[in-house]
């Protein structure tokens, strides 16, 4: 197949990579701030809004249906061509195509999140639905331009690690609505909680004001028709309809099992007896450490093994980690496995406390067996998710043509979000029908089709399909 513009050597950088320390530069710092900004609105909807609705007496089925407001993340490719074609212009300041859209969408996200605190789910559920839809729309629009900016900013040799850093920061954003805000909600009114959460968009806004507009690759779309038609035509022409449909199926299916398992995780933890504070301190804080570790290890590991093999290894680990939720759903205080884990955790904690006491630091470890299980299960799940997302997003980025970055990146990430939206909407009904244990077993089984597609997308030893993916090894 002839070499097309999208076929930059991003996926083969590991062959002559000078060492990952060379990539701790300004580009990586930008990825941190913009990744955090991308993640905050989505995790506000997934974690904070879910806990808010549940605490205000909204039933589980209605909470599940609230996942439908995330559809802008699924359909964002429909208006992505507008963001490729048009340039926002502010009085006296022309920030450029990417920076202009980033600034506008980030400010709107912050305002929509803060506005949630001024309505009550009990009295104005439709107003809540409208505001959360705005958060999703502005957040999805912000994702479009941030993904395009990152793809254009990073050099080919930075794509793997740069996308891993972005994913890591994206997951890091979950700490605010999924941990800090939950803890604060036990001690302050919801309007203050949402205002504070919205204020965490400020670092991304400041970064947008400071960074430079990336160089334009090729010729920007001359009109709206070119912005809409050419990105899709280029994608189809790479390997024909068969290759395009194969990539679409893989993007759709690869993370569907993990997505379904985590979509109602906060409600699951509440239903099996954990308090919001326990969830905020134990689960989400443990998840932060595990996610950071997974993102860093995943990014560095991808340099050594390549994105293709990373998808195989990380995908298998992700599938196995889902079984931990099923174990937690069946766990009782008399479990021998839990007793062993608890004893190990206590022994390790006391050893660490003894070491710290040498330096005059007094620490008294206090754990219950169930909180230990919660920390282990959620920690392993978020660690493997960090690994997998590093490879998955790098794969998506390397599959885009730099001439049509915003539209193609939005198309691929929209496809990846379809399972989250549809499965989340149905998950409450499924859990009510079969229970938590069988639900998580089903989630594990749903990961198998995506893994099987790797035989075509990125064979362990062989030639993959569709442009960039052909060099995934």
TrEMBL record:
<feature type="transmembrane region" description="Helical">
    <location>
        <begin position="167"/>
        <end position="184"/>
    </location>
</feature>
<feature type="transmembrane region" description="Helical">
    <location>
        <begin position="241"/>
        <end position="261"/>
    </location>
</feature>
<keyword id="KW-0472">Membrane</keyword>
<feature type="transmembrane region" description="Helical">
    <location>
        <begin position="101"/>
        <end position="119"/>
    </location>
</feature>
<feature type="transmembrane region" description="Helical">
    <location>
        <begin position="341"/>
        <end position="363"/>
    </location>
</feature>
<feature type="transmembrane region" description="Helical">
    <location>
        <begin position="310"/>
        <end position="329"/>
    </location>
</feature>
<dbReference type="InterPro" id="IPR004752">
    <property type="entry name" value="AmpG_permease/AT-1"/>
</dbReference>
<feature type="transmembrane region" description="Helical">
    <location>
        <begin position="63"/>
        <end position="80"/>
    </location>
</feature>
<feature type="transmembrane region" description="Helical">
    <location>
        <begin position="29"/>
        <end position="51"/>
    </location>
</feature>
<keyword id="KW-1133">Transmembrane helix</keyword>
<feature type="transmembrane region" description="Helical">
    <location>
        <begin position="375"/>
        <end position="397"/>
    </location>
</feature>
<dbReference type="Pfam" id="PF07690">
    <property type="entry name" value="MFS_1"/>
</dbReference>
<feature type="transmembrane region" description="Helical">
    <location>
        <begin position="125"/>
        <end position="146"/>
    </location>
</feature>
<protein>
    <submittedName>
        <fullName>Major facilitator transporter</fullName>
    </submittedName>
</protein>
<dbReference type="InterPro" id="IPR011701">
    <property type="entry name" value="MFS"/>
</dbReference>
<feature type="transmembrane region" description="Helical">
    <location>
        <begin position="190"/>
        <end position="211"/>
    </location>
</feature>
<dbReference type="InterPro" id="IPR036259">
    <property type="entry name" value="MFS_trans_sf"/>
</dbReference>
<dbReference type="GO" id="GO:0016020">
    <property type="term" value="C:membrane"/>
</dbReference>
<dbReference type="GO" id="GO:0022857">
    <property type="term" value="F:transmembrane transporter activity"/>
</dbReference>
<feature type="transmembrane region" description="Helical">
    <location>
        <begin position="281"/>
        <end position="303"/>
    </location>
</feature>
<keyword id="KW-0812">Transmembrane</keyword>
<keyword id="KW-0813">Transport</keyword>
<feature type="transmembrane region" description="Helical">
    <location>
        <begin position="439"/>
        <end position="458"/>
    </location>
</feature>
């Amino acid at each position: 197949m002839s070499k097309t513009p999208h076929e930059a050597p991003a996926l083969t950088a590991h062959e002559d990579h000078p060492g990952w320390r060379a990539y701790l530069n300004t580009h990586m710092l930008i990825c941190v701030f913009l990744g955090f900004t991308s993640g905050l609105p989505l995790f506000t909807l997934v974690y904070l809004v879910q806990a808010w609705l549940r605490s205000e007496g909204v039933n589980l089925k209605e909470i599940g249906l609230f996942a439908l407001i995330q559809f802008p993340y699924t359909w964002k490719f429909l208006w992505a061509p507008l963001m490729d074609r048009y340039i926002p212009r502010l009085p006296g300041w022309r920030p450029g195509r990417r920076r202009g859209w980033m600034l506008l969408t980030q400010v709107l996200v912050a305002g929509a999140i803060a506005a949630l605190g001024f309505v009550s789910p009990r009295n104005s559920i439709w107003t809540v639905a409208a505001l959360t839809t705005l958060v999703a729309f502005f957040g999805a629009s912000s994702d479009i331009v941030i993904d395009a900016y990152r793809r254009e900013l990073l050099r080919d040799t930075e794509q793997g690690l740069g996308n891993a850093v972005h994913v890591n920061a994206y997951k890091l954003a979950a700490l605010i609505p999924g941990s800090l805000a939950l803890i604060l909600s036990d001690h302050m009114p919801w309007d203050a909680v949402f205002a504070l959460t919205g204020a965490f968009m400020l670092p991304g806004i400041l970064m947008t004001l400071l960074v430079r507009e990336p160089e334009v690759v090729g010729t920007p779309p001359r009109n709206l028709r070119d912005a809409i038609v050419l990105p899709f035509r280029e994608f189809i022409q790479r390997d024909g309809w068969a290759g395009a449909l194969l990539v679409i199926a893989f993007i759709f299916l690869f993370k569907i099992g993990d997505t379904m398992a985590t979509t109602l995780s906060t409600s699951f933890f509440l239903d099996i007896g954990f308090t919001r504070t326990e969830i905020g301190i134990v689960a989400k804080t443990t998840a932060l450490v595990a996610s950071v570790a997974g993102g860093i290890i995943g990014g560095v590991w991808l340099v050594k093994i390549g994105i293709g093999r990373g998808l195989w290894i990380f995908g298998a680990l992700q599938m196995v980690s889902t079984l931990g939720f099923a174990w937690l759903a069946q766990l009782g205080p008399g479990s021998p496995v839990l007793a062993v884990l608890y004893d190990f955790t206590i022994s390790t904690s006391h050893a660490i406390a003894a070491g710290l006491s040498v330096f005059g630091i007094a620490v008294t470890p206090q754990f219950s067996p169930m909180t230990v299980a919660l920390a282990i299960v959620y920690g392993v799940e978020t660690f493997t998710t960090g690994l997998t997302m590093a490879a998955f997003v790098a794969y998506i980025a390397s599959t885009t043509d730099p001439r049509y970055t915003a539209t193609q990146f939005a198309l691929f990430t929209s496809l990846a979000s379809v399972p989250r939206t549809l499965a989340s909407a149905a998950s409450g009904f499924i859990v009510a029908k079969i229970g938590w244990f069988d639900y998580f077993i089903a989630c594990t089984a749903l990961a198998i089709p995506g893994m099987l597609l790797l035989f075509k997308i990125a064979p362990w030893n062989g030639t993959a399909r569709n442009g960039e993916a052909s060099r995934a090894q």
